[in-house]
Specification:
206 residues, alpha+beta, Beta-Lactamase, globular
């Protein structure tokens, strides 16, 4: 009968540690969280699950990263895009180092959220479709997804650099708000112009 917060508090008082994690999963966000995303008009931002499915995004993310609204639901996964989509792979200026880092951070996220069983099918699919992912997954490397700069080759904007930051959503271990801020004024100007031009032609996040 306890809420999640009450359950965690009871465990801390009785045992001195939080309870074991149990993956909740999500396929959408609340309107309030979507409004937070939309309040960042020129900073690409998204919410992803612990299994790295993208469940919400803003117009800047659709313009600069991937127009997730044009993808089928089962393809809105960061790992599937990075390892199985040639366009997404080509956009990464430092794909090899990014792929190493992403797989290690993904493994850590999955374990932290108690989602090991939930990702088995995804991991098996990725191992079949991508020899690169298969090799990296077998390394069993684990890393925290710390702040860093993401460097992209955008088909319209050219080379851009984005500072990466991520935040918990409502204290849920299974949801993460990811924000990419342009590192300089020139990148900000180009992104602003591109996002605004898409608005005038009717392109928007799904």
């Amino acid at each position: 009968m306890l809420t999640e917060v009450e359950r965690e508090h009871a465990h801390m008082l009785a045992l001195g540690r939080p309870p074991g994690t149990s993956y909740q999963g999500a396929d959408s966000v609340t309107p309030r969280v979507q409004r937070v995303l939309d309040s960042l008009p020129y900073s690409p931002a998204m919410v992803r699950t612990a299994t790295w499915d993208v469940v919400a995004w803003n117009a800047a993310a659709a313009a600069v990263l991937t127009d997730y609204g044009t993808l089928e639901l089962h393809k809105r996964n960061i790992l599937k895009l990075l390892f199985c989509d040639p366009r997404a792979k080509q956009m990464q200026r430092e794909w090899e180092s990014v792929s190493h880092f992403v797989v290690a951070a993904f493994r850590a996220d999955v374990v932290r959220a108690g989602a090991s069983d939930e990702v088995k099918a995804l991991v098996e699919e990725l191992c079949r479709q991508s020899p690169e992912f298969d090799a990296l997954w077998r390394n069993h490397d684990v890393r925290n997804y710390s702040d860093h700069v993401k460097r992209l080759r955008h088909p319209v904007l050219g080379e851009i650099a984005l500072e990466h930051s991520q935040f918990a959503v409502d204290g849920r271990a299974d949801l993460c708000l990811v924000v990419y801020n342009p590192v300089n004024e020139e990148d900000t100007r180009r992104i602003r112009a591109w996002v605004d031009s898409r608005k005038t032609t009717g392109s928007a996040p799904g």
